[in-house]
Write a structure and sequence with these properties.
Aldehyde Dehydrogenase, Chain A, domain 1; Aldehyde Dehydrogenase, Chain A, domain 2; five-stranded parallel beta sheet; 14 helices
């Protein structure tokens, strides 16, 4: 297993120098065509994955099921987006030397993600668009589908664009040791994107650190919604409903705060089959509580902000109110990655916010890419000086 993963990683590392913007745009456009041309093979693999995944809960099965047309459309739109601007800034020193601040590729990047096959295309597309190569590892439940997407779509598309198909590698085993190997190759995979449950991500991040590998973690989380007493009841109902259109996603409503229980549209929750819970925690990756929402009464907007900041992952929070002063105080006080007023946290998504798919949503509280991470964030800064 280690030999196979190292081989894929070294091949991806060697491919980086051959990537260029025009070729990648052609490859992504061709990949969109191949998704449609090879739709039947992709769907056959996805059905096989679904049939075998009898132990998965409703939310995980929802993530495992692939929408082929959506994948093709996102690839087409990604191909058409402008390439990353390579020069960030520039100035001339007193001695006449010119300084340019450049964005350069990271190199080959690893990616370990949940059993969600569309993520394979999202991550690979973002890496290629930023002129990075990648080695993908998915959860075992999605391995058939992801293998078809890599071998029958992404690699042939790269070859058709005269680019090395090895720029997208794959860990071809469901064994969990594959993830540990992926984060242990600093010479060829200096950065690994981690998605999944908080516990698994934390363990892999510690393993990576012991090998000198940097990680960009996209762990568990959930949306917070605060219903202020100044909320329009119709808006509150609409936003609660929109926040629960899918259960198997991290940006859906997990924690519902309110000034009074009468503000909670319980009929909307009932229609969605949602169980109301009192324990304060996030359920996004908990299979036993996937159809749950925590409801909690707060004494003030300040308490709502404090809970969203201190007792959740900081993924996203929203307030529903017609009081502009209260809304602005809530937005200014929240320190998470995305803050909303009279809108759903379901918008916390790279494609919805920026027009580009994402590698995931980074909730780290350190400088660097935060929130939905797209190809515009996947670079290293370099100072280039000409005397």
């Amino acid at each position: 297993m280690r030999e196979q993963i190292e081989k894929e990683a070294r091949a991806a590392h060697a491919a980086v120098s051959q990537l260029h913007d025009d070729g990648v745009a052609r490859a992504l456009g061709r990949a969109a065509e191949l998704v449609r041309e090879r739709r039947d093979a992709i769907l056959d693999a996805n059905r096989a994955d679904l049939d075998a995944a009898t132990e998965l809960d409703e939310g995980m099965r929802d993530r495992l099921k692939l929408d082929v047309e959506s994948v093709a459309e996102q690839l087409s739109q990604l191909a058409a987006l402008p390439p990353l601007e390579r020069e960030e800034d520039g100035w001339t020193l007193a001695d006449g030397a010119h300084v340019a601040v450049r964005r350069i590729p990271v190199g080959a990047v690893g990616a370990n993600f949940e059993a969600r096959p569309n993520v394979a295309v999202d991550v690979a597309g973002q890496l290629l668009k930023s002129l990075n190569a990648g080695v993908l590892r998915t959860g075992g439940a999605a391995l058939r589908t992801v293998t078809v997407l890599v071998d029958d779509v992404l690699r042939p598309a790269l070859a058709d664009a005269d680019l090395p198909p090895e720029a997208v590698g794959l860990v071809r085993t469901p064994d969990h040791d594959g993830a540990r190997i992926l984060v242990s190759l600093p010479d060829v995979l200096p950065l690994v994107i981690l998605r999944g449950s908080g516990e698994t991500t934390a363990l892999l991040a510690r393993e990576a650190a012991s090998h000198g590998v940097r990680t960009l973690a996209h762990a568990e989380g959930g949306g917070v919604l605060y219903l202020h007493h100044g909320a329009d009841p119709d808006k509150a109902r609409s936003i609660v409903s929109a926040s629960l259109d899918r259960l198997g996603v991290c940006n859906r409503l997990n924690l519902l705060l309110c000034d009074d229980l009468s503000l909670v549209p319980r009929d909307v929750l009932a229609e969605r089959g949602i169980t109301v819970r009192e324990e304060l925690r996030e359920w996004a990756n908990d299979p036993e509580r996937i159809a749950s929402v925590t409801v909690r009464v707060v004494s003030s907007p300040d308490e709502a902000v404090a809970i969203a900041n201190d007792e959740t992952s900081g993924l996203a929070a929203a307030i529903v109110t017609e009081d502009e002063a209260v809304a602005n105080a809530f937005l200014d006080g929240y320190r998470g990655t995305a803050a909303y007023w009279n809108a759903t946290t379901r918008l916390t998504d790279g494609f919805k916010l920026t027009g580009s798919p994402e590698t995931g949503i980074n909730v780290d509280r350190v400088p660097g890419p935060r929130g939905p991470v797209t190809y515009r964030d996947l670079y290293l800064r370099q100072y280039r000086v000409v005397g």
